[in-house]
Specification:
The strands form 4 sheets. Strands 1, 2, 9, 10, 11, 12, 13, 14, 15, 16, 17, 20, 21 and 22 form a 14-stranded antiparallel beta sheet that branches. The protein has a 4-stranded antiparallel beta sheet with strand order 4-5-6-7, with no helix packed on it. Strands 3-8 form a two-stranded antiparallel ribbon. Helices cover 9% and strands 38% of the residues. Among the domains are: 47 residues, no CATH class; 185 residues, TonB-dependent receptor, beta-barrel domain (Maltoporin, Chain A), CATH 2.40.170.20; 86 residues, no CATH class. The protein starts with a helix and ends with a strand. It has 549 residues and is mainly beta. β9 and β10 form a beta hairpin.
Length: 549
């Protein structure tokens, strides 16, 4: 009954797809860009089908007491899709070098009595006073760098937009009809990453060892990178405020270094001291493409950077009777320009797009202490536990406890409240101090696993290649034994997880009084604010059986 264009409804549509047709049928064809632009009835969009190749080579060498492991991983990533050639224009534009050859038609008198500054390259995009009838050059752009008509660099493209005949930027378009054409897009350029890995260790003496490793990893884009021409470019002006994917995102690269020293303290115990440094470059972040044409929009780029510096002290006690024990303390500093791909959303909303400063990230858990205790009884003649009613009741059983505590992660505090459930215009909060300048409370948790093994002999089993018995383990696994209420996120104004401070503010009180039922509004609002996902998992108990046969 409907075509694809009918269902898209000028960008306010009822469907969204790729790898399927608009009727919901799976498609396997690799559609071209013209299959979408020239077929209004179907608007075919191919599936996201990246090509990923990797080879891993490794060898191990030993020279006397030195152990060396060398490896290299070579990865090739091809998103296998088209993406916008110029993030600042959906339509093809003229460059400074191209307009020199315009002798007739639209823009022929553009260079009358005008010389292009020597600081402007031939590939710089030209901006004019009027798209339909350009008569004056107002500025130029090289990537994300803007220049005025005299070739001087500008701090903002808004200065060029203000001089035009419209309220928006005016690039010198090759086609004033503003049709979506394949020339505006380019194929993804495959990325090849060479990732070396080195690990070595050697004894300092009979009771001490030094070790170190160097590692490099690449991680492919996981979201915000799928080319979808319908929802992003074709109806771009109708979808103002939407985030436009960047089909040209590249893998982010993480490099890590680690140096350690291990000292034997006794026959069954050892102490390790480990220092590490890790940096991630080209991480994904939300950016504002300001004064793009036809509209400014948000998208993703490989801009973020993060460093993690840590020191660990580990103590191990093995095989001392029934008990094994381990203790780990980690001191960690994580700083970067963003904790995740949407960290800069608040800065963009505050009209400070693409501001880059180093702040603690969400991974900045400054102090963390973990203790592992394993207490176990052996079976058979090695059993040394209590005997009740002539039964070795605790034979082949044990308990494992993990006790952990850590300092709170950083969060941003605000000087004014904002409603968690509101109607009408969105509210803007102002930072109290620096971004991520406050800390969540410490967390404490104890997990326990209690288990007992049983052996059941099989009857009439003469096959030497099969188990002569069936092994079973009954276990009781309890997470957060003491049911501690560990907070994972808070409201920036109050620093609490169950109160955002809105209902006690003057405007919040006024909003509550204007509702049909004030008490009902207050009750429902508090339910909304006290979100269970702001807390870590409460006590969780599992009783189970494992069977080995």
């Amino acid at each position: 009954m409907f075509s694809a264009d009918d269902l898209w409804n000028n960008g306010n549509g009822f469907v969204g797809y790729y790898g399927y047709d608009y009727l919901g049928n799976r498609t396997r064809k690799a559609f071209s860009f013209t299959d979408f632009t020239n077929d209004e009835a179907n608007r075919s969009v191919g599936s996201f089908a990246p090509v990923y190749n990797a080879v891993w080579l490794q060898d191990k060498f030993q020279f006397k007491d030195l152990i060396l492991r060398l490896g290299v991983r070579v990865e090739r990533y091809d998103a296998n899709q088209s993406g916008l050639k110029d993030a600042y224009s959906v339509y093809p534009t003229y460059s400074a070098g191209e307009i020199k050859n315009i002798n007739s038609g639209r823009g022929a008198n553009l260079l009358s009595g005008y010389d292009i500054p020597t600081t402007i390259g031939d590939d710089y995009v030209v901006y004019v006073n009027d798209i339909t009838n350009p008569t004056k050059i107002l500025g130029y752009r090289d990537g994300g760098n803007w220049y005025d008509a005299s070739g001087s660099e500008l701090s903002s493209p808004d200065l060029i937009a203000q001089e035009g005949n419209s309220d928006r930027i005016q690039p010198f378009l090759q086609d004033e009809e503003e049709n979506l054409v394949k020339e505006s897009f380019s194929d993804y350029e495959p990325v090849i990453n060479v990732l070396p890995r080195i690990w070595f260790s050697f004894p300092i003496n009979s009771e001490a060892q030094f070790f170190a490793n160097y590692d490099k990893l690449a991680q492919r884009p996981a979201n915000g990178n799928t080319f979808a021409p319908i929802s992003t470019y074709y109806y771009m002006q109708q979808n103002q405020g939407a985030v436009v994917p960047n089909a040209h995102l590249k893998p982010r690269v993480t490099t890590s270094y680690e140096f350690g020293f291990k000292q034997t303290l006794s026959r069954n115990s050892a102490l390790s001291l480990i220092a590490s440094y890790k940096e991630t470059r080209g991480d994904y972040t939300l950016v504002r493409i300001n004064q793009a044409y036809p509209i400014s929009y948000n998208s993703y780029e490989n801009l973020d950077f993060e460093t993690i510096k840590s020191f660990r002290a580990e103590y191990e006690l093995r095989g001392e009777g029934r008990t094994s024990f381990g203790l780990n303390y980690t001191l960690l500093f994580a700083d970067g320009t963003g904790s995740n791909s949407n960290s800069s959303a608040a800065l963009i909303a505050a009209n400070q797009p693409n501001l880059r400063s180093l702040y603690p990230t969400s991974r900045d858990t400054r102090h963390q202490i973990t203790a592992l205790l394993d207490y176990r009884f052996k079976g058979g003649n090695d059993y040394t536990g209590p005997i009740w009613f002539d039964k070795k009741f605790f034979a082949n059983s044990g308990a494992n406890l993990i006790v952990s505590t850590k300092s709170g992660e950083p969060y941003s505090a605000y000087i004014n409240p904002a409603a968690s459930a509101s109607f009408g215009a969105a509210q803007r909060q102002s930072l109290d101090g620096n971004p991520f300048g406050s800390r969540l409370p410490w967390q404490f948790k104890v997990d326990g696993n209690f288990n007992k093994n049983f052996s059941i002999k099989k009857k009439n089993t003469k096959d030497d290649f099969r188990r002569q018995s069936m092994e079973m383990q009954v276990f009781l696994w309890v997470q957060n034994i003491f049911n501690n209420k560990n907070i994972r996120s808070v409201y920036g104004y109050t620093g609490l997880a169950n109160n955002d401070g809105w209902l006690s503010s003057p405007q919040g009180i006024q909003d509550a009084e204007t509702q049909v039922n004030t008490q009902s509004y207050l009750d429902l609002y508090n339910v909304k604010v006290n979100n269970p996902y702001l807390y870590n998992t409460p006590r969780l108990t599992r009783l189970g059986v494992k069977v080995f046969f």
